[in-house]
Structure formats: structure tokens, C-alpha cells
């Protein structure tokens, strides 16, 4: 059974981190970091979000986010992790090999 949905309150600052399964390296080259930054830009347009800070490391990333309304954070993060996972698998030609996060 999955976990219950998290409630996220607007106008609060959140520190989010996401690490690859098994501490697997997800950023191998500069283009990988740039691709993730592009996803952040797309997500910000799709789901308006104040991105205060971020840090990308080879096997994980941190975001400091300041959502406008309740549940904005959940929608924003869902889209980022889904888009990044799908694009990563397509780029590295390993679709169907399992979860990235």
C-alpha cells in the first residue's frame, strides 16, 4: 500500500532533496545538469513556483522552494521527477530498467 499524500501549505519555504536509487549516479556530464535545469524552467512555467536555491550533485539534488498556494509543491515536484525520469531513461536508452529515484 502506498503512503498517504502529503499536505503542503503555500507560503512556506521547503527544502526538498531527491537521491537516486542505490546512490546511483544520475548526472554524468554537464549536459545532464543542463537538462535538469531545463526541466526546472519548464516546471516553473507549468506550475508557478518560487525557486530560491538549488544544488545538483552527481547522485542527488536539493531544492529550496517557496510555493504560492497549498499543494503547489506536490504538483511541481511530481512533474519534475516524472519528466526527469522519463527523459533520463530515453537519453540513456534504458527504458524499462526500473526506477531512477
Number of strands: 3
Under CATH, the topology can be stated as: Alpha-Beta Plaits
| Beta-strand content bin | 15-25%
In which range does the helix fraction lie?
25-40%
CATH superfamily assignment? Transposase IS200-like
Question: Helical stretch count?
Answer: 2
What general form does the structure show? Answer: globular
* Biggest beta sheet summary: 3 strands, antiparallel
Radius of gyration: 14 Å
Structural class: alpha+beta
Low-confidence stretches: none
What is the strand arrangement across the widest sheet? 1-3-2
Number of domains: 1
Overall CATH architecture: 2-Layer Sandwich
3D structure, described in words:
There is one protein chain. This protein is an alpha+beta fold. The protein has a single domain (14-84), classed as Alpha-Beta Plaits (2-Layer Sandwich). It is 37% helix and 21% strand. A hairpin with a 2-residue loop joins β2 (50-57) and β3 (60-66). It is globular, with a radius of gyration of 14 Å.
Furnish the topology, listing elements before pairings.
Elements: E1 14-19, H1 30-46, E2 50-57, E3 60-66, H2 72-91
Antiparallel strand pairs: 1-3, 2-3
